[in-house]
Amino acid sequence: xxxxxxxxxxxxxxxxxxxxxxxxxxxxxxxxxxxxxxxxxxxxxxxxxxxxxxxxxxxxxxxxxxxxxxxxxxxxxxxxxxxxxxxxxxxxxxxxxxxxxxxxxxxxxxxxxxxxxxxxxxxxxxxxxxxxxxxxxxxxxxxxxxxxxxxxxxxxxxxxxxxxxxxxxxxxxxxxxxxxxxxxxxxxxxxxxxxxxxxxxxxxxxxxxxxxxxxxxxxxxxxxxxxxxxxxxxxxxxxxxxxxxxxxxxxxxxxxxxxxxxxxxxxx
Length: 268
Ligand SMILES: Nc1ncnc2c1ncn2[C@@H]1O[C@H](COP(=O)(O)OP(=O)(O)O)[C@@H](O)[C@H]1O
Ligand SMILES: [Mg+2]
Known about the structure:
The longest helix is centred in the last third of the chain and has 16 residues, at 178-193. α3 (102-109) runs parallel beside α7, α7 packs parallel to α8 (178-193) and α9 (205-211) runs parallel beside α11 (245-258). Residues 261-268 have low confidence and may be disordered. The chain is α/β, with parallel strands linked by helices. It has a domain at 9-99 and 166-258: 3-Layer(aba) Sandwich (Rossmann fold), CATH 3.40.50. α8 links the parallel β7 and β8. Helices cover 40% and strands 24% of the residues. It binds adenosine-5'-diphosphate (ADP) and magnesium ion (MG). Adenosine-5'-diphosphate (ADP) is lined by residues 20, 25, 43, 45-51.
């Protein structure tokens, strides 16, 4: 009954170190991102979450250790080659091009794909519009006129257009009103159901835990806990995330209610 099929590792980090000047920010991170799952990285402001994603994307130089994408060593690879191999990065702050239309933003995201395969681009564009109907309605509108939530969808859509093997998403909920965060959560839960592999960084723990299959807690550039999200009880939340006991118990209750974990990797 419980024979588990071997899960493919999409991304693997071993002993990754990085920093700026003489200051080490990332102190030897080991991390495994399994296919079809959402791996969440949580931690306080300044813990090194964004720097870690940038090191994985190749936009901040690595000092030591090794990064593999689907068993290919990408440790010293240029960012654009990582993209061509199937990595997408949605940076913190979204960074859509405000004066370009929604569709033009998606075209920019698909730059390498369009060069390789025009018909795949058309199909993927349609898939993004199917996933985000609001982007389809606004395809000719300048991205700068979109609401914050729609810009967040556009940033995610731009990552999805290359049909990536893994998406690195940095704080998609940051700066959004609570109602919009709920909308975005629905969209990302749908994206998750499609089976996308994600490495998600969030400061909004409630939002992030509802999306994540497993959680890594980052403290001053070190992973201090990693495990199934379902196993994060209120004690661990209180201990590792420094959230108050009341909020922790509220979060744990929410987790139990909203996470019938999709352990569909098990076959019988
Ligand atoms: N370009 C940079 N140059 C120097 N220090 C940086 C740079 N980017 C980030 N840092 C420092 O690295 C630490 C981690 O930052 P960051 O990864 O952005 O934190 P967070 O977990 O909030 O995303 C912080 O102390 C920050 O000041
Ligand atoms: Mg950050």
